[in-house]
Amino acid sequence: MSITEIAAAARKAAIQLAAAKTEQKNEALMAIRKALLDNADAIIAANQVDLEQAEKDNLAGPLLKRLKFDQSKIDGVCEGIDSLLKLEDPVGQTLSATELDAGLELYKVTCPIGVIGVIFESRPDALVQISTLCLKSGNAVLLKGGSEAAQTNRILADVITKATAAVGIPDGWLGLLETRADVAGMLKLDDDIDLIIPRGSNEFVKYIMDNSNIPVLGHADGICHVYIDAEADIDMAVNISVDSKCQYVAVCNAEETLLVHEAIAGEFLPKAKAALDAKNCEIRGCEKTRVIIDVKPADDQDWKTEYLDYILSVKVVSDLNAAIEHINTYGSGHTDAIVTANKATAMTFMDLVDAGDVFWNCSTRFSDGFRYGLGAEVGISTNKIHARGPVGLEGLLIYKWRMIGTGQTVEPYAAGDKHFTHQKLDKDWIGG
Amino acid sequence: MSITEIAAAARKAAIQLAAAKTEQKNEALMAIRKALLDNADAIIAANQVDLEQAEKDNLAGPLLKRLKFDQSKIDGVCEGIDSLLKLEDPVGQTLSATELDAGLELYKVTCPIGVIGVIFESRPDALVQISTLCLKSGNAVLLKGGSEAAQTNRILADVITKATAAVGIPDGWLGLLETRADVAGMLKLDDDIDLIIPRGSNEFVKYIMDNSNIPVLGHADGICHVYIDAEADIDMAVNISVDSKCQYVAVCNAEETLLVHEAIAGEFLPKAKAALDAKNCEIRGCEKTRVIIDVKPADDQDWKTEYLDYILSVKVVSDLNAAIEHINTYGSGHTDAIVTANKATAMTFMDLVDAGDVFWNCSTRFSDGFRYGLGAEVGISTNKIHARGPVGLEGLLIYKWRMIGTGQTVEPYAAGDKHFTHQKLDKDWIGG
Predict the structure, then answer these.
(1) Could you tell me if residue A409 is inside a domain?
(2) Which helix (H) or strand (E) holds A227?
(3) Both A178 and A155 in a single domain?
(4) Domain shared by B191 and B338, yes or no
(5) Same domain membership, residue B241 and residue B199
(6) What number is the average pLDDT over the span A106-113?
(7) Which among B195, B356, B366 has CB closest to A410?
(8) For residue A58, with 0-12 CB atoms within 10 Å meaning exposed, 13-18 middle and 19 or more buried, which class applies?
(9) Which residues in B lie closer than 8 A to residue A113 (C-beta atoms)?
């Protein structure tokens, strides 16, 4: 099938899937779980083919590790399905109920978005996580994984679609895309795809955002800050700075710039430098920083750079407002943290920093769907509409306005013969 | 100021306005109300200049009526401000609270989107409604009204910004754009504008959507359907069909296509035709329709057309599924209604029709923010993310994840030494 046909089939399936009952969706999830375990040998064999090819292609060690899909990875995604099974069905929740007039009731009820296109990295477990999240939330999904994982992704998609078809989930709800040309084609299908979630390099995400009219949920940059206030506990400040930077440097929620109040810089910076040196982390500092510690100079470009590496830029600021101003100028609206013992200072920081995630006295690395307790995550959004920060099931939902009348026409209300009551109703949508 | 400077000032103001207290925002609303009444004479005089120019330019009668801004219109917008004052502050609401671990608490709290660009028609009352909605929701706003209303809009913007400055609302929160070049400039400012809400002709909205990377909330087409089921009450079906089509034809929530189950078409169509004839509404029918009533033929183009006029296309369908299929193929996801006495049929229709607003036994014309009881509306959205259908205050909000720790780092959780509790907390965000 062409990408156009796959997307049209997904649209058709999405309509039916939106109306699927909770029991049927959970039955499908259990069928997927069973099929993954039943087909474990074949899945692992297919993954072996990908791994051998990847070794021939001299793929780097960490990438090989992510590509590997063995029994323990299969057990891991099955645990994920177990937790998804326990979650309440997010579809069909009544967000509001209003009596407009006697016998005229309006309900705002959650529903799936429709067809979600997800482009993800080389981890095959992402295919299972994303497709099961979409299934639970009643969305059809088009998946494009890394080409390194082609054999593994193909068998996983096959196992999942066969398992769901057997319990009556409509064909076409999961479409697997395999080529770069498919991705380019997908970007043009705004009639059949409602949302694109790209995971990958910044350049790639920017390319998607610039080349499609379809809404994109995701983030290009993750330029996260930690601000050490004058009233910070020094040990806590060092720990949080180092963890935010070094716990895992290659990710979007890692700290890239450390901001330090000038009143505490003299005491804090030498201790921070010692701890960062121990992790072999390079420091690039502003002029005021370099008066206190011996580090390379930082320039304007450093404040704009997501290093994704053992490099940290450091700036000494005159006060809280200067820190907030720096973050709102150079930040990417992802995650920014303050370390301070002063509650009022923390509240001002959290009110005025314009980011999806604002933290007080903890590491930026907590900004993550699993750590937030959302179950799985489809991605992290720096968008300012729809969904922000780590996005789980909720970000895959929208709502319908459902109104039940008894023959009402607008004319008598427009003529002033009838009047709206607009009473809040304490009841849920009748369907389901 | 250039559009770039106006937008940058709005961004700066938005940061402060997001943190404004409820009392201050309400004080500002009261100040606007008072200033509008105090300056009524000057506002009406400015409007008189616009009206005289419009008469010279031979503006059509209905447009002149919309342009007019007299004492009763001023009283009307003041009533709107009164109702806005009574609404709870939508900002700072705790959507969820979770303990991640002892002393590590995560709150999802509503906040304004930031800077909203609104392009609206020639009604000057829209300027007051939109700006006060944005103020209450803590958003800065860039407004571009119809050029016919230039003098009226200028004095209204001036009166409003002076009134809000006097109570400490940051300068720049309301920017008035006056030229078409400003609109084109606005579309490029994705760093400083978070959302564009265009109200106007379909072509114009499509132009905006195609020419900006900024998210757009709105609708291009409003192709609404009424489906008369086999089990419909005939009188109700006729009333709803006529009201949906003729109560006000020039609007997006007016019916454009009537679908009729073949089992009831013979009885229903002659009565519907008589009622529509009485309103001088032209009917264009499919072949099956034309066997029953004598009307012009409809072709495929009719199913895709938003007439916004006294024209209705009619199609006889074989069953409910054919009706749903037609709507999902040709509809614009705006508002679609079913008339039936059968609840199960209605539920299936409302589950499977993919539209923002799905109605049972009432007119499509109810699809409106005022009628829904949302207070004012900034527009109607056919988007499938963020906000759908009539959009009031809620559509102008997003949320921030706010986390409070006591020095936690991620490393011990990653190493398995500490574990998340993920307990739901029954409390609200501490700030405010």
Answers:
(1) no
(2) strand A224-228
(3) yes
(4) no
(5) no
(6) 97
(7) B366
(8) exposed
(9) 384-385
Contact: B403, A217; criterion CB under 8 Å? no
Assess A428–B contact: CB distance below 8 Å, yes or no: no
- ipTM confidence score: 0.94
Mean predicted confidence (pLDDT) in A54-70:
90
d(CA B92, CA A318): 29
**Tell me: the pLDDT tens digits for B259-303?**
999 999 999 999 999 999 999 999 999 999 999 999 999 999 999
Structure tokens at A329: 């100028």
Pair B91, B142 in one domain: yes
- Residue A407 located in a structural domain: no
CATH number of domain containing B153: 3.40.605.10
pLDDT tens profile B156-207: 999 999 999 999 999 999 999 999 899 999 999 999 999 999 987 788 888 8
Q: Report the 3 state secondary structure along chain B.
A: CCHHHHHHHHHHHHHHHHCCCHHHHHHHHHHHHHHHHHCHHHHHHHHHHHHHHHHHCCCCHHHHHHHCCCHHHHHHHHHHHHHHHHCCCCCCCEEEEEEEECCEEEEEEEEECCEEEEECCCCHHHHHHHHHHHHHCCCEEEEECCHHHHHHHHHHHHHHHHHHHHCCCCCCCEEEECCHHHHHHHCCCCCCCCEEEECCCHHHHHHHHHCCCCCECCCCCCCEEEEECCCCCHHHHHHHHHHHHHCCCCCCCCEEEEEEEHHHHHHHHHHHHHHHHHCCCEEEECHHHHHHCCCEECCHHHHCCCCCCCEEEEEEECCHHHHHHHHHHHCCCCEEEEECCCHHHHHHHHHHCCCCEEEEEECHHHCCHHHHCCCCCCEEECCCCCCCEEECHHHHEEEEEEEEEEEECCHHHHCCCCCCCCEECCCCCCCC
Residue B15 in contact with partner chain A when CB distance is under 8 A: yes
Q: Is A251 on the interface with B (CB under 8 A)?
A: no
> pLDDT (tens digit, 9 = 90+) per residue, B25-37?
999 999 999 999 9
Give the nearest chain A residue to B210 (CA atoms): A213
Residue B432: per-residue pLDDT: 47
Residues of B in contact with A188 (CB under 8 A): none
B105 lies in which domain range?
Answer: 3-217+385-396
Q: Considering only residues 170 to 209 of chain A, which have any Cβ-Cβ distance to chain B shorter than 8 Å?
A: 194-195, 209
CATH of the domain at A325: 3.40.309.10
Question: What pLDDT, in 10s, does the model give residues B90-100?
Answer: 999 999 999 99
**Which residues between 283 and 322 in chain A have a beta carbon less than 8 angstroms from any beta carbon of chain B?**
none
Is some CB atom of chain A closer than 8 A to the CB atom of B333? no
Q: CA Rg, chain B, in Å?
A: 25
Task: Tell whether A66 is covered by a domain.
Answer: yes
Question: Using the beta-carbon criterion (under 8 Å), do A18 and B352 form an inter-chain contact?
Answer: yes
Q: Are residues A289 and A142 in the same domain?
A: no
Nearest residue in chain A measured CA to CA from B382: A400
Distance from the B36 Cα atom to the nearest Cα atom in chain A, whole angstroms: 27
Chain B CB within 8 Å of residue A136 CB: no
Q: Which of A100, A384, A390 sits opposite B114 (nearest CB)?
A: A384
Specify whether A266 is located in the same domain as A321.
yes
Contacts of A239 in chain B (CB under 8 A): 407, 409
Question: Do A285 and A360 share a domain, yes or no?
Answer: yes
Is the CB of A22 inside 8 Å of chain B's CB atoms? no
Question: Do the chains contact at B351 and A18, CB–CB below 8 Å?
Answer: yes
